[in-house]
């Protein structure tokens, strides 16, 4: 019996080449399928990214136009106010009237500038949020897809 055990240890296992071919074929097919799946996910991610970039560019454009219009409006208001003030100064008859007009003008200009700054700041904040939102959503979607995969 000792010799039989010794023979078993050194006995050549039966080697079936057809099973090796089947294993290689299965391995290759699984690899190709995984590659197709990965490519499909990458293609979807690239398309989503392109859409996100397009939306972001459109948002930035619209927001910058809005900010530009607000800035032009502020400049127009300031210019009109300055011209009105200059007209009023032309009719001044005394130094005290001049000081009174100048003080009132400066006060209204400071108040108007503060209000315009608030308006521009709020518009800029909203623009920044709307620009960041699509990218944030796309990143969250991508990370969720990675977790699933």
Automatic annotation (TrEMBL):
It comes from the Bacteria. InterPro entries: Phasin, Phasin_subfam-2. Pfam families: Phasin_2. Residues 43-137 form the Phasin domain. NCBIfam families: phasin_2. This is Phasin. It comes from Ferirhizobium litorale.
